TrEMBL record:
<dbReference type="InterPro" id="IPR001906">
    <property type="entry name" value="Terpene_synth_N"/>
</dbReference>
<dbReference type="InterPro" id="IPR050148">
    <property type="entry name" value="Terpene_synthase-like"/>
</dbReference>
<keyword id="KW-0456">Lyase</keyword>
<dbReference type="GO" id="GO:0016114">
    <property type="term" value="P:terpenoid biosynthetic process"/>
</dbReference>
<dbReference type="InterPro" id="IPR008930">
    <property type="entry name" value="Terpenoid_cyclase/PrenylTrfase"/>
</dbReference>
<dbReference type="InterPro" id="IPR036965">
    <property type="entry name" value="Terpene_synth_N_sf"/>
</dbReference>
<protein>
    <recommendedName>
        <fullName>Terpene synthase N-terminal domain-containing protein</fullName>
    </recommendedName>
</protein>
<dbReference type="InterPro" id="IPR008949">
    <property type="entry name" value="Isoprenoid_synthase_dom_sf"/>
</dbReference>
<keyword id="KW-0460">Magnesium</keyword>
<feature type="domain" description="Terpene synthase N-terminal">
    <location>
        <begin position="61"/>
        <end position="233"/>
    </location>
</feature>
<dbReference type="Pfam" id="PF01397">
    <property type="entry name" value="Terpene_synth"/>
</dbReference>
<dbReference type="GO" id="GO:0010333">
    <property type="term" value="F:terpene synthase activity"/>
</dbReference>
Amino acid sequence: MALQSLNSLHAFLPTHVILGSSSFGRGLVHFRVQRRMASTKMSHHQQPITRRTANFKPTIWSYDSIQSLSSEFAGKKYADKVKELKEDVRVMLVKESDPLHQMELIETLQRLGLSYHFDHEIKSILGTIYDKRRSNINMPKQESLYVVALEFGLLRQHGYDISQEIFSSFKDEKGNFGDDCKGILALYEAAYYCVEGESILFDAINFTTDYLKEYIKHSKDDEYLSTLANHALELPLHWRMLRLEARWFIDVYEKHHQDMNPVLLEFAKLDFNVVQATHQEDLKHASTYVNNMMHACLVIVRVPLY
């Protein structure tokens, strides 16, 4: 009765009048005003407003399609091959006597998605480099920007406390950090490990970004370096997903790297495929579990209580 009286009363009032102070009354009048405005708009255009449909296609990840996934790399033969290559690379990493070559190898292993196999070895190598840096033992008097930036990035990445002041000697009065593209690219990646208040690294980000953009436009000498620079400008390395980065870098390493190591390349390809096969098996098990749970829930719903 109250609602009918309200409707009959509202018929004699202008659209801008608010009935009382209750939210119900305000909402009702607002609805009527909006409806009248919509009717007026439709009368002008003479076109009904139709609701769009999404027209989504059925998912390809059905239970049957997931269970049909298979990979030859799930077998023991490939697992044994991975162990063999892993040992070869481990020896390669540990036996290397040049710290620069060790750091370059660590960076390559990270990009290829292989570094998780050598966590202990990498930690030991970087710990030794960090101790030498702190005590200035056997450190060259004039280091290149590339060496310092590569070292800084790896140490920061693995949690070592290394100061931004290490780059002070490379910065001139104009704020430039040199003209070595390889070193500039390493500095670009390293500078993104900055924390709040590190002005030298913030300046390095600005300088290296501008430098690499110009380098890509004008330099055609080193296709590998240009590819890495263009990729880095899209997103710094440590902001990326490692497995997706590994898939991209495997192709780049094979096609463009002048000093490509065939053992590393074979290990990277095989490891990627074996890990992918493992993920597929995990997905199949998870899909089976979810499917069984859904059937169990349907049975419970259909069973009467009495």
